[in-house]
């Protein structure tokens, strides 16, 4: 009996570690939202799952989903996301 309980605790801890480390961020946010709907503290879950607290819509930005004014034509080019270039050096 005790052996089964100990094995269950070890497997549950391993599953929790896997979920907090290797699942995609979107899935972790959905897990946090689902568990917080069940009454658990969302801030503690967000810290455990290494995500930000969210309102559950999936965007995790709470408040920035509101409509924003359209960008003007005079907007500087810095408003576009920068692309990083990874240089590969092939050694033969």
Task: Give a written overview of the molecule.
This protein has a domain at 1-56. The chain is flat. The longest helix has 21 residues, at 2-22. It starts with a helix and ends in a 44-residue tail after the last helix. It has helices at residues 2-22, 25-37, 42-48. It contains three helices and no strands. The chain has 92 residues and is an all-alpha fold.
Order of helices and strands: HHH
Helix content: 40-55%
Strand elements, count: 0
Mass-distribution shape = flat
- Pairing-aware structural class of the strands and helices? mainly alpha
Measured distance between first and last alpha carbons = 60 Å
Strand content: under 5%
Summed up, what is this model?
Helix content is 45%, strand content 0%.
Please give the structural blueprint.
Elements: H1 2-22, H2 25-37, H3 42-48
Keywords:
flat; mainly alpha; 92 residues; single chain
């Amino acid at each position: 009996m005790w052996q089964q309980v100990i094995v269950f605790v070890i497997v549950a801890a391993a599953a929790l570690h896997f979920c907090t480390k290797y699942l995609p961020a979107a899935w972790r946010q959905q897990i946090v939202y689902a568990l917080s709907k069940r009454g658990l503290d969302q801030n503690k879950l967000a810290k455990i799952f290494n995500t930000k607290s969210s309102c559950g819509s999936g965007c995790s930005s709470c408040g920035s989903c509101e409509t924003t004014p359209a960008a003007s034509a005079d907007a500087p080019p810095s408003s576009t996301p920068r692309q990083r270039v990874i240089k590969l050096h092939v050694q033969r």
